[in-house]
Amino acid sequence: MNLEIVLPALAAGFEALMEYLSAHVLTCLIPAFFIAGAIAALLQREAVLKYFGRDAPKWLCYSVASTSGTILAVCSCTILPMFAGIHRRGAGIGPATAFLFAGPAINLLAVVLTARVLGLELGAARIAAAVSMAVIIGLVMAAVFERGERVAERAAAQACAIPESEGVDERPGYIPPLFVGVLVAVLLAATSGLAILPKAVIVGILVLASAWLLMRYFTDGEKASFFGETWWLTKRIFPLLLVGTFVAGIIGYYLPVELIRMVFGESDFAACFVASMIGALLYMPTLLEVPIVGTMFGYSTGAMAPGPALALLLAGPSMSLPNMIVIWRIIGSKRAAVYITLVVLLSTLMGMIYGMVAS
């Protein structure tokens, strides 16, 4: 084994892992795991099923799922704990996977940055394509796997059952959603572009507010369930994210960027498919996909055609190797394989359509 070749690749993987840990664990993943634990343990199951359940009105559940990313500043990994939380709470596979894709795909900050840096047309195309893809992915996943949904929902209800305790009936019904909302506010504040001091003050106030709500309105059994669900999701997902991020860094080291640039000159099937595959494998932190497309792959200089640029913007933020590994673990090999295939093929198709329109 040639150490001169292997060691730089390992160093690239380690660098990607350290960058991920420093940039995302404290501000993104920790709040996301607590949100997921609250969804799985404290929200009434009926509230989740109202918007994400198998029998919810399709116009309602897919409208909510496909546009949820506009308020969540999350990447392909941060969305996973929340996806696991609603999945364990009994959400239908269709709305849940629509939420899984749309969360990072139409992050409002990323879409605005795309429009400002790469052009208004590409930004608008990203929004339209991402929402359409989320709905299509959800409908196809539901059509293929909905037969097992009722069994899954019953299992989720048993797995997530909250111990009956005194005092729950006297608690106002808005408290659990408010608690989850405060945790979401922590995530949004922590990932905002505010200066360190005001950001720390806002996050601190929100954390204290969530702690007060938890201590004031929830029983000991519910607290134990909340922390238990949070820890269960953390130990199930976090190690896989670390391994996947390290491997993705190694893949990025060996990626022949100059050769790939030559492939992306046209908006044909090959260019859009390769762009989708690269986006599906590489880990792209939120907002980083814009300079990757604009500078690394040469869209801003005209080296990259509009079609593969859009395909990369669709597949890249919503999926990564760590993301795929965790999805495989959460929903099983068959569902994960169909979901991953849909993302890659639909990103390719949307890129080709946009390439024809933009040319």
UniProtKB/TrEMBL annotation:
TM segment ranges: 20-43, 59-84, 96-115, 127-145, 174-193, 200-217, 237-255, 267-284, 336-357
Q: Which UniProt keywords apply?
A: Cell membrane, Membrane, Transmembrane, Transmembrane helix
UniProt keyword Transmembrane, yes or no: yes
What Pfam families does this protein map onto? Answer: ArsP_1
Q: Where in the cell is it found?
A: Cell membrane
Per the record, the major location class is membrane
Entry membrane topology: Multi-pass membrane protein
Q: Which domain of life is it from?
A: Archaea
Reply yes or no: does the keyword Transferase apply: no
Record PANTHER family: UPF0718 PROTEIN YRAQ (PTHR43299:SF1)
Family indicated by similarity: Belongs to the UPF0718 family.
Protein's recorded name: Permease
Q: Which organism is it from?
A: Candidatus Methanocrinis alkalitolerans
Give the organism's phylogenetic lineage.
Archaea, Methanobacteriati, Methanobacteriota, Stenosarchaea group, Methanomicrobia
